[in-house]
Specification:
The complex is a heterodimer. Chain A has a 7-stranded parallel beta sheet. In chain A, strands 13-12-14-15-16 form a 5-stranded parallel beta sheet. Chain A is 27% helix and 27% strand. By secondary structure, chain A is of the alpha/beta class. The radius of gyration of chain A is 23 Å and the shape is elongated. Chain A folds into 2 domains: 169 residues, Rossmann fold; 120 residues, Rossmann fold (3-Layer(aba) Sandwich), CATH 3.40.50. Chain B is α/β, with parallel strands linked by helices. Chain B has 8 helices and 16 strands. The relative contact order of chain B is 0.18. Classes of the chains: A alpha/beta, B alpha/beta. Strand 17 of chain A pairs antiparallel with strand 16 of chain B, so a sheet runs across the interface.
Chain lengths: 326, 263
């Protein structure tokens, strides 16, 4: 079986992530003379296929079916495993989105494939075509290097790990494909949208990151004021968003990951699951009134003070000296 | 209704440290415990039992010491627990865990609802729930909350982060739950005393489930070659023990020096 399988298949319902995966897939596959295929699934997807050659795809398989209109792991698994049977890739890359994490393990289980979560790098050895993958372990404390023991591997890659690359004048072959799909198992009765965040946190040059040191939602006004003064944005830890519902999204292992020039944490505890979201920052300033806070030793500048006193004082200095973010 | 809850004897990741000079991940002496998310799993199972009737059966694949967390977990209104003993010293991946859990669940008959955490506290692979559902040929509702049962179907909100969907699936179904699904109860002293009398059985892989060491290795798709800790160098300069206004100006001076602020 291993000799029959070649090339890389890419799937992510999140387009930006899909393009990032394509960038890396093209780099690895081109060196080995292997093809890169993208799978596009949905009710109508042909329009999205047009430019994928530019981003590194050799082929785009489109599977259009009303059963794929809404995300249901069952018909999606049918579609992908059907397509994999046809394309016979050696590696299948998924984006580590919530949907990707739901689908990829199911696909791996059906294929009997190896499956790597939080994959941050991979390579296929020339000649032997052995796969090596590196992945985050212990919620981001370390990296493990694995050798894949199976002939096929499913790799689940977080957004922003790889870089998308536009290539000149490339066109992918577009192949409409109709695998056999089972009935959806879930009935989707209602869609309940949540308030969306205004701008992308990933683009912020300054992030003011708030944690459970804040006593009530109204108090976030001082964090917002500081962020506004520095032309930045306010972010938070998981409990602030998910338990208290003060902000729509959080930073961390299970949330978004940012790499601003300056990150100022206010009353953030410094758990590794959260640090994964902010450790790409160039400089971290932590404000906490407890000298024992784990956040203070994970920052460049740790201020032991009451954030409710410190933040207004900091804003006063910035205003008096007429300073802004460089 | 027969409910299964799969829980893990997890490393307390907050106690894992990385040696800054060697980049070694220090695991020696790191305590293991019932995972935080597993408390949400237990709460989900117990609430379903209390609302709709039935029994709750706990499953853990782990070392003999995992018995301790099962004793505690039985206090959350569970009926019995099965510990499948993990062979020591083997590096296993979620594929192996799934093969073991699937065999154990099948041995105890069919379940109407299987509850798993979205991911474990230490592994965080998000793989076990969906892989187990696929292996058992069951539908799954991931990131489930507000779970109710009506006429043989389960209804739940599936949380996508950017929004949620209310979905319905026929039983049997596998649910994965998150920290946000519910607020776990703390078993009372009385609950824990009662839990001591509940059945807690230990199974051997080969003898009780017919899983040979080779089968287990084959179910594991990855060979671990090396690990390395991530060390992020930070200056760790502390500003303290001064009036707030002085601390603020001192920080601003430092940020100007770093070229992060300009006039």
């Amino acid at each position: 079986m291993s000799n029959l399988h070649r090339g890389i298949l890419v799937f992510s319902e999140a387009r930006e992530t899909c393009l990032e995966l394509l960038g890396k897939a093209h780099e690895v596959a081109a060196r080995l003379g292997m093809p890169v295929t993208v799978a596009l699934l949905g009710e109508r997807v042909a329009a999205e296929a047009v430019d994928l050659g530019t981003w590194g795809a050799d082929q785009v398989y489109t599977v259009e079916n009303p059963r794929l209109e809404r995300f249901d792991a069952h018909p999606y698994t049918d579609a992908l495993t059907g397509l994999i049977d046809q394309v016979k890739p050696k590696l299948i890359l998924f984006g580590a989105t919530k949907r990707g994490f739901e689908l990829a393990p199911r696909v791996a289980a059906r294929l009997g494939a190896a499956c790597v979560s939080a994959c941050v790098d991979f390579d296929i050895a020339p000649g032997t075509h052995e796969i090596e993958a590196r992945a985050m372990i212990y919620t981001g404390l370390g990296i493990a290097k694995y050798r894949v023991k199976k002939s096929i591997a499913v790799l689940i890659v977080p957004p922003k790990v790889f870089v998308k690359r536009a290539l000149n004048d490339r066109k992918a072959e577009i192949v409409p494909y109709k695998p056999k799909l089972g009935e959806p198992k879930l009935e989707i009765l209602e869609v309940r949208p949540q308030m969306a965040a205004g701008t992308r946190l990933e683009d912020a040059r300054v992030v003011v990151d708030v944690g459970q040191g804040f006593r009530q939602k109204e108090d976030l006004a001082i964090a917002q004021e500081l962020a506004d003064l520095l032309g930045g944005q306010v972010s938070c830890t998981r409990p602030i968003s998910s338990e208290r519902g003060w902000l729509p999204e959080w930073l961390g292992l299970s949330g978004r990951k940012v790499s601003p020039r300056l990150c100022i944490t206010l009353g953030v505890a410094g758990a590794i699951q959260h640090m994964v979201g902010i450790r790409g920052s160039e400089v971290i300033v932590a404000v906490d009134n407890s000298p024992d806070s784990a956040m203070l030793v994970q920052a460049d500048y740790g201020i032991i003070d009451d954030l409710y006193k410190f933040v207004p004082a900091l804003m006063q200095v910035l205003k008096t000296r007429q300073l802004r973010a460089a | 209704m027969k409910i299964a809850a799969c829980i893990k004897y997890s490393l307390d990741v907050s106690e894992v440290k990385v040696d800054a000079s060697t980049k070694q991940i220090r695991l020696a002496g790191v305590p293991k415990k019932l995972g935080n998310i597993d408390r949400n799993v237990l709460e989900t199972a117990a609430t379903l039992k209390e609302t709709y009737g039935g029994t709750v059966h706990l499953f853990t694949f782990g070392p003999p010491e995992a018995k301790n967390i099962l004793k505690e977990a039985l206090g959350v209104n569970a009926d019995d627990a099965t510990l499948i003993l993990e062979p020591s010293g083997e590096a296993l991946d979620p594929g192996a865990t799934v093969a073991v859990l699937a065999a154990a669940l099948k041995k105890l008959g069919s379940f109407d609802v299987i509850v798993c955490g979205e991911a474990s506290d230490d592994g965080f692979t998000y793989q076990v729930g969906p892989r187990l559902a696929e292996t058992l040929g069951m539908p799954q509702i991931t990131y489930a909350r507000k779970i109710t049962i009506e006429n043989g179907s389960i209804l739940a909100e599936r949380d996508w982060g950017e929004g949620a969907e209310l979905v319905k699936a026929p039983l049997p179904v596998l649910l994965t739950v998150t920290e946000e699904t519910n607020t776990p109860r703390r078993p009372t002293l009385m609950d824990l005393v009662k839990a001591k009398k509940k059945p807690l059985v230990e199974w051997q892989l080969e003898k009780d489930l017919g899983i040979s060491p080779q089968t287990l290795q084959d179910a594991s798709g990855l060979q671990l070659l090396a690990t390395e800790g991530i060390v992020v160098e930070r200056k760790q300069i502390l500003l303290k023990d001064k009036p707030t206004a002085d601390l603020a100006s001192e920080l601003v001076d430092l940020l100007v020096q770093e070229n992060l602020l300009e006039g």
